[in-house]
Amino acid sequence: MSLxxxxxxxxxxxxxxxxxxxxxxxxxxxxxxxAAAHFAPPRLVGVIGKDxxxxxxxxxxxxxxDCSGVEVADGKTFRWGGxxxxxxxxxxxxxxxxxxxxxxxxxxxxxxxxxxxxxxANAHPKxxxxxxxxxxxxxxxxxDTMNLWIDVALDDLKNLLRHVDGLALNDEEARMLSGExxxxxxxxQVMGMGPRYLILKKGEHGAFVMGExxxxxxxxxxxxxxxxxxxxxxxxxxxxxxxxxxxxxTSPQTMRKAMLYGTVTASxxxxxxxxxxxxQRTRMDFDERYAELLSIVTV
Amino acid sequence: MSLxxxxxxxxxxxxxxxxxxxxxxxxxxxxxxxAAAHFAPPRLVGVIGKDxxxxxxxxxxxxxxDCSGVEVADGKTFRWGGxxxxxxxxxxxxxxxxxxxxxxxxxxxxxxxxxxxxxxANAHPKxxxxxxxxxxxxxxxxxDTMNLWIDVALDDLKNLLRHVDGLALNDEEARMLSGExxxxxxxxQVMGMGPRYLILKKGEHGAFVMGExxxxxxxxxxxxxxxxxxxxxxxxxxxxxxxxxxxxxTSPQTMRKAMLYGTVTASxxxxxxxxxxxxQRTRMDFDERYAELLSIVTV
Lengths: 299, 299
What we know:
about 300 residues, homodimer, UDP-N-acetylmuramoyl-L-alanine:D-glutamate ligase, 10 helices, alpha/beta, nine-stranded mixed sheet, about 25% strand
């Protein structure tokens, strides 16, 4: 089934305790699409600058990602720099150069307006809604957000939440948006704002999804060596939405399996910089790790 | 099957953001035994002072706990005071009065020497070993410990680890004992020190068990209101060991189910001060919550 993602294409500079890498391919929509492409061919809407390398665009296309919604604007591509502490849980933003993303207005090509599954990657909620409203009759829409928008654009975010089926948050964002420290109560609060499903990501502590007909919780895949956690959340969303789109429904059973695929996808992502690990994985790698994770969580 | 616990009986003073309670029944062996008694009748070895209230001892006996190994010594019962921050994750020790526990030397009554399942609650590893050596031929021995002993009695702890089948640690202790920040690598390191199984407790983030034939991970039960987390780890161990003893074997299947029972048990424990919640639960409460947890983790 058709799967659309609207988000960023970026060049990232990442510092970890082990390494420093500059100008690597990144961005929420890139991580999402590369992850989802293992399950269903994604359609990508975003913006790049003149400096975006042809080989990177070609690389995305080779993975079956429809890049006809990627606009090339005058200026430079979005750039972000971050540094991780040794425990991986503390991240410092070194710089954020919005560049062409500053005035991004998503333009969903006509051929993509019939998309059934939609992921609105992190952006100002007005921009997310603007993108969503160009899709005819989506079946299942999930949005991501961040603490910044909860802080400075809460009304716009709450408006968006009335139009989406699911919201993906990390634990800190869920607490901030709900004002509840207990994550279960936080999830219930957020669902009262509109979304039928809340996907709560807890990093190394796993994730859970709550909905009217569903409460499913699982631990993270036990990665023994993290190289770079950047993109883990978007990769999770890509694996999750890719699996849902491939299945073509949102039954509790599909959602549970999709949570495992999201977990597996995120675990590959953090094993390398940029898309270096997740980009080279085969469907067999996914299925093997899915089976391993299943054995770890099966009672 | 016979289940023995060696540990503390105590009176606790607890401060939370909501309440302050003084001189409540507590102690590792009390929490363990009250939890385990829901599954198999535990035998308790420990020490109390002259001030220990008869009604408390009678209450333990009424639950089917064999208290013939509880020695009454001259002096006062072990007393501990702690204060929790609003997030529950930060605990400040207000005081520790070892009292009669300071010179505790476990004396396992003859009638308890045939115990098949043994839990060595947190104590100096020399004391734990001294207790264990009085058991004839235990089938499955699990020890708990704490950061203090890793710090000041590492050699004694490592010696103990060569005599136990399982070690229960929280994430901080596992990192400290192994020198590894990654919990999976930490678990592997600790298993290299002797135990066949490592039970790793992550509080609100769940728990996992690793062994030669087993790797099973599960989230915590989603408690919506924590009243007092004191005793959660010992209650987990009590539910876990009680379920294992009731089953009479340590097959992977038994261990997985026992992890769920440990999780359920800890979730009741934190819903009240002292043993107020867990002490009043029926077997039906346990089975209902077990079924609910099972539905939350089943793919």
